[in-house]
């Protein structure tokens, strides 16, 4: 088996999940960790047995680095990805792929002209309930899809934003709860529903006004071209991180995700279809457990020369949905990076 050399840029909270996923497969080896914080890079490198760097551009000409994981603040994704793709590297970036649509388009263009692939980390597509929902939609076993709703109620304290100066700002985070915490649920809704025809939503800062520039709460009505309607609500104003709730309604039954368990409601009866298994994957439970599966799948696609299915165009769809919510909220009149809403 071909061993793919890897590097991680950004040694923050999400980076250990990537490092552990690389180590958990026989076909990848972490060779370098990069962070502008010298001490943080050194500690990370020592813990995961790899070299430590402070400048990601040192990776560009290294022939032993095949795949680079971007675990940096949002506003750094685009330029790093473009540089790495132009150098022929494969890039796997954490969400969001960029803070605005023009930057995302630059990434897509770079990927089109690169020998490397661009992958986006939407790991919740690999969760068992998500897979079962998608299969049910495509099989038609419960009849046509009618409507959906997604609810995310989490907690982010003022200290969460104060400890990292890039969070809570339009220019560096690209938004608030929409683009950071609830983006995975919005991605699932658009993945399940298909092409979007219109979006109407609103955002507000309910409890963190004066702490952040961006929103901590949002809701939206999403209309799809197939006449399916999706409702969404997300907030960081709760006091706990509740499990994500999904309801997927078909003509002949309903799928419900509650506390990470998937249920089927049909003919007046509720049946458990899947429940969380025991996982050795570390990290916050509400992130889902799909990181390792996604990362291993990306490596398999790269090794076999197959296009990865969650690519830049998939990442762009979710950014367009978020842009539509902001735009319909009148946010384009404020100081934020969004330039374009989804086309109807």
Task: Tell me what you see in this structure.
It comes from Paenibacillus borealis. Residues 132-255 form the GFO/IDH/MocA-like oxidoreductase domain. The structure is a single chain. The chain has 2 domains: 4-122 and 296-309, Rossmann fold, CATH 3.40.50.720; 125-271 and 313-333, Dihydrodipicolinate Reductase, domain 2. Helix 1 packs across helix 9, helix 3 packs parallel to helix 4 and helix 8 (183-193) crosses helix 10 (312-328). The protein is globular, with a radius of gyration of 20 Å. The longest helix has 17 residues, at 312-328. It is an alpha/beta fold and 344 residues long. The chain has an 8-stranded mixed β-sheet. A 6-stranded parallel β-sheet has the order 3-2-1-4-5-6, with helices on both faces. The chain contains 10 helices and 14 strands. Helix content is 31%, strand content 25%. Residues 278-284 and 333-344 have low confidence and may be disordered. Helix 4 links the parallel strand 5 (90-94) and strand 6 (118-121).
Topology:
Layout: E1 4-9, H1 15-23, E2 28-34, H2 38-48, E3 51-53, E4 67-70, H3 77-86, E5 90-94, H4 101-112, E6 118-121, H5 128-139, E7 145-153, H6 158-162, H7 170-173, H8 183-193, E8 196-204, E9 217-224, E10 229-235, E11 245-250, E12 253-258, E13 261-266, E14 269-274, H9 291-304, H10 312-328
Parallel strand pairs: 1-2, 1-4, 2-3, 4-5, 5-6, 7-10
Antiparallel strand pairs: 7-11, 8-9, 9-10, 11-12, 12-13, 13-14
Helix pairs in contact: 1-9, 3-4, 4-10, 8-10
């Amino acid at each position: 088996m071909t061993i793919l050399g890897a590097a991680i840029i950004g040694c923050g909270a999400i980076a250990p999940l990537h490092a552990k996923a690389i180590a958990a497969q026989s076909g990848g080896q972490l060779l370098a960790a990069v962070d502008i914080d010298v001490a943080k890079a050194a500690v990370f490198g020592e813990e995961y047995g790899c070299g430590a760097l402070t400048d990601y551009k040192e990776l560009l000409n290294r022939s032993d680095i095949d795949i680079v994981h971007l675990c940096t603040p949002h506003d750094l994704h685009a330029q790093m990805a473009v540089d790495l793709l132009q150098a022929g590297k494969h890039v796997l970036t954490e969400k969001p792929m960029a803070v605005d649509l023009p930057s995302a388009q630059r990434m897509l263009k770079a990927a089109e002209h690169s020998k490397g692939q661009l992958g986006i980390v939407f790991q919740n597509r690999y969760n068992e309930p998500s897979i079962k929902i998608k299969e049910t939609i495509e099989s038609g076993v419960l009849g046509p899809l009618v409507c959906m709703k997604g609810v995310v109620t989490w907690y982010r304290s003022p200290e969460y934003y104060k400890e990292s100066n890039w969070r809570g700002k339009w220019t560096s985070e690209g938004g608030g709860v929409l683009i950071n915490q609830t983006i995975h649920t919005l991605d699932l809704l658009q993945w399940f529903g298909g092409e979007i025809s219109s979006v109407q939503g609103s955002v507000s800062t309910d409890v963190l006004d004066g702490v952040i520039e961006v929103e901590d709460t949002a809701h939206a009505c999403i209309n799809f071209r197939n006449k399916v309607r999706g409702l969404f609500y997300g907030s960081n104003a709760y006091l706990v991180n509740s499990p994500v709730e999904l309801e997927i309604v078909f003509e002949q039954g309903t799928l419900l995700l509650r506390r990470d368990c998937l249920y089927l409601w049909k003919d007046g009866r509720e049946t458990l279809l899947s429940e969380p298994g025991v996982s050795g994957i570390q990290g916050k439970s509400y992130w889902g457990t799909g990181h390792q599966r996604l990362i291993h799948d990306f490596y398999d696609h790269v090794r076999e020369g197959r296009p990865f299915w969650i690519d830049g165009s998939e990442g762009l769809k979710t950014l367009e949905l978020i842009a539509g919510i902001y735009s319909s909220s009148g946010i384009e009149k404020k100081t934020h990076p969004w330039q374009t809403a989804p086309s109807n």
